[in-house]
Design brief:
It contains five helices and no strands. α4 runs antiparallel to α5. The longest helix is centred in the C-terminal third of the chain and has 35 residues. The radius of gyration is 17 Å and the shape is elongated.
Length: about 140
């Protein structure tokens, strides 16, 4: 396995662990979301919305961790990539469409993580293709 894919796997584990922590925080205190993310409309954040956000974040965390474990699983890889596109679209829409979030560090961090992850995973696709081609050549 290429060094890049090993770094990508480590990145996915790190992002997954951080997301799991955010999940716990969402269940523990919904004020976390109104203070860090949805600062433009904190009154819209309630316990139900925080728990829903927590479940969504936990699902993303599990998918990303599983991808780190089995990075050659193409279906799982594409689903994981989609989780980052979904996160990017969510936070961008909250800032620019719904205006419930401002461009604070609390929003910029997940935007940057999603963007870097998308870039890394798109590059990783090329490495996976090269590995698959070289394995096919060895078989023939």
């Amino acid at each position: 396995m290429s060094r890049f894919l090993n770094v990508l796997r480590s990145w996915l584990v790190m992002v997954s662990v951080i997301a799991a922590g955010n999940t716990l925080q969402s269940f523990r205190d919904h004020g976390f979301l109104s203070e860090k993310l949805y600062t433009a409309s904190p009154g819209l954040v309630n316990g139900l919305q925080a728990r829903t956000f927590g479940v969504w974040t936990l699902l993303s965390s599990v998918i990303r961790c599983l991808c780190a474990i089995d990075i050659r699983n193409r279906t799982l890889y594409h689903i994981t990539l989609f989780t980052f596109f979904l996160a990017l679209a969510h936070f961008l829409s909250e800032v620019f469409v719904y205006r419930t979030a401002a461009l604070t560090i609390g929003v910029m961090a997940p935007l940057m993580v999603a963007s870097f992850s998308i870039l890394g995973m798109l590059i990783g696709l090329q490495y996976l293709e090269v590995e698959a081609l070289s394995q096919n050549k060895k078989k023939n």
